[in-house]
Known about the structure:
Blueprint lengths: L11 H9 L4 H33 L3 H14 L1
Amino acid sequence: MSYVTVSAKIRRDLYLKLKKYNISVSEVIRRALEEEVRKREEEEIKEALKKAQEILKEIPSSELVKVIRMSREER
Length: 75
């Protein structure tokens, strides 16, 4: 796995507090970014599900039942 370096400017007093409490900046940034990406991916999936739901609403339930039965019989 390859890595890239990112940087951010922070206030000096915050930097000094991070050092005082021995907080791993890279670990905190990594976790925060991973969490933000996870949230965005969830939002994207929810939006795709909404679109799929709208499409499926247009299909009669009898047609869906028929397709499910055919799929089960193929197994």
